[in-house]
Every structure is written in C-alpha cells, then in structure tokens.
From TrEMBL:
<feature type="transmembrane region" description="Helical">
    <location>
        <begin position="36"/>
        <end position="53"/>
    </location>
</feature>
<feature type="transmembrane region" description="Helical">
    <location>
        <begin position="6"/>
        <end position="24"/>
    </location>
</feature>
<keyword id="KW-1133">Transmembrane helix</keyword>
<keyword id="KW-0812">Transmembrane</keyword>
<feature type="transmembrane region" description="Helical">
    <location>
        <begin position="90"/>
        <end position="111"/>
    </location>
</feature>
<feature type="transmembrane region" description="Helical">
    <location>
        <begin position="59"/>
        <end position="78"/>
    </location>
</feature>
<keyword id="KW-0472">Membrane</keyword>
<feature type="transmembrane region" description="Helical">
    <location>
        <begin position="131"/>
        <end position="150"/>
    </location>
</feature>
<protein>
    <submittedName>
        <fullName>Sigma-E processing peptidase SpoIIGA</fullName>
    </submittedName>
</protein>
<dbReference type="InterPro" id="IPR005081">
    <property type="entry name" value="SpoIIGA"/>
</dbReference>
<dbReference type="GO" id="GO:0004190">
    <property type="term" value="F:aspartic-type endopeptidase activity"/>
</dbReference>
<dbReference type="Pfam" id="PF03419">
    <property type="entry name" value="Peptidase_U4"/>
</dbReference>
<feature type="active site">
    <location>
        <position position="185"/>
    </location>
</feature>
<dbReference type="GO" id="GO:0006508">
    <property type="term" value="P:proteolysis"/>
</dbReference>
<dbReference type="GO" id="GO:0030436">
    <property type="term" value="P:asexual sporulation"/>
</dbReference>
Amino acid sequence: MIVYVDLVFLTNLAVDGTVLLATAKARRLRPARLRVAGAAVLGAAYAAALFWADVPYLYSLGAKLFVSVLMLLLAYGYGSPLIFVRNFGVFYAVNFATLGGVIGLSTLLRSAGSPWSGMTFTPQGGVVLDWRMQLGLFAVTFALSLWLFIGASEGRKKQADTDALLWTAEIRIDGESWEVPALLDTGNRLYDPISRIPVMILEASVWRDKLPDGWCERLQGESADRLVTELGDSEGDGGFPWLGRLRFVPYRGVNGGTRMMLALKPDSVSLSREGHSPLLIQRLLIGLDGGTLSPDGAYRAILHPDMIASGAARPAPSQPA
C-alpha cells in the first residue's frame, strides 16, 4: 500500500480544524483563528508522523491523549479545570460522532454481495474489518456527519433554553381554572396604556368553549371592536358572561401600524415551576391571540416579565386539603 504523507497531512489538517471549530461552536467559544489553525497543524503533523517515523510510543494511548491536550490548550487555552474538562469531553464527542457517522454513512452507501465481505477472523478470535474509502466520499460523509451533529446539538440547546423559561400558568375566572404551559418572554413589553397593567398573551383556543362561536378564528383577521359590538348586552339575554372583563389594548403590528388586541381581566393567575415558589398575580390582563404561539405546542401563553419581577407577584396561598 502506498501512503502519501502530504495527503494525510492535508486531510487531517482540514478534519482537525473542522472538529476544533465544531467544538468551539458547541461550547460557545470564540477562539482566535490563528490558534485554531496552529492546533490543527499540530494534529495533522502528529497524524503524518505516524506514517513517517517508526516510533512505537507515538501509537500509544498516552501519546494520543497528550497531543489532544496540547491541541486543546493551543486552541482554547486552559481557563479552569472544569472548563478544560468540558472542552476535552466535547472535543472527543465531536470526534466520535463524526467518525461514527462517516463509517455508518459509508457502509450505507456501499453495496456488497455478502455481509461477510470485508471481514477477516483472526486465529485469536478477533475480527478485522477491511474499511476503505475514497477521499471524495470521505469528505461528503464527514460533512454530513458534522452537519447532523451540529444540528442535533443546536436543537438540544434551543430546547434547553426554552425549558429554562417555561412556567405553568393557572388562570382563574369566576371559580373556574385553566392550566397552560407559558413561556417567559423578556422582550414582551405590552402594557395597558392607561393603567400600565402588564399584558400576557394567551391562545384564544384555550377558551374555545367559553368564547362566542367563531372568535378563535376571527381574532386573526377581524378587528376586536367589531367582535365586541356583536355581543349581547346582558347575561340574562344570553350575552357573553365575561363582557365586563373585556378590554382593548393597542399594540404595534409587524408592519408598524397600530392595532387593537382584545384582552380580558382574570381574577388571578398562578405561576409555578420546579425549583421556584409559586407566584400569584392579580394585576394583569390576558390578551387573546387567534393563532398558535408555539408550532410544537411547547407553550400556549407568553408571560410578561413584570409578572415574575418583585412587586408584581407574591407567594400564592396554599390550597386547603
């Protein structure tokens, strides 16, 4: 077999540099490009030296770990023992994930007459796999594996960030209650302009059985005042029982124009989540949204930050047994 050391060096240079950048992305680091390039050169030189120099110790586990440590120190620095251990773990996680993806994808794409082809059994009972791949196929499978790893990592991070802001909101009106998952949105600055009461947003479909027929759909395209004018004037005549709780809240739409949001004054809203004391909020409005706030259904309400801030919430009373 003929091995071109320069090709080995360049291939490992590209792979090591990509893995180092993927590790930095996963760890949310911003290393200098020159440091990453230097670490990649170190890794590529070590890989080429395995074919060029006949030194047994270069193949040992200790030597490989030592070179990995040098690469990480050169690329990201030390920081602290905990930071370095995390960088080290993510670095090898990226390596294992991409290498496993390369082998898996190449096996999937390669056709063979028998599952036993490419396998050799040693006298000691071991199995030797004959795994060969062209450079172009390696580049494609490596890129796909890295893309899958980064996509999965970013998906987990986004889900973790969302979970950190999720609360359970229990809305109480006239002795009835509705419990919905709610997302704390620090960018929500919607207030009633007169009373300066904060406004949380709720999917109108939560109250589909309480709102007049068709409101959940009409709220998306029709003005709030038009819907209210169609309501009855009294409860006795079959009017809307929450008529006295309705409010109009002006807000600015995505096109820059001012619109009216239909809101409702609840008796109270209780917020709870693991690791936090329950909170009871009574001074707020609930704006009705005719659409879906979360495509995956992770939350059905958006909380105002003032609902969590001190002064806007107080510990909820314990429920009687």
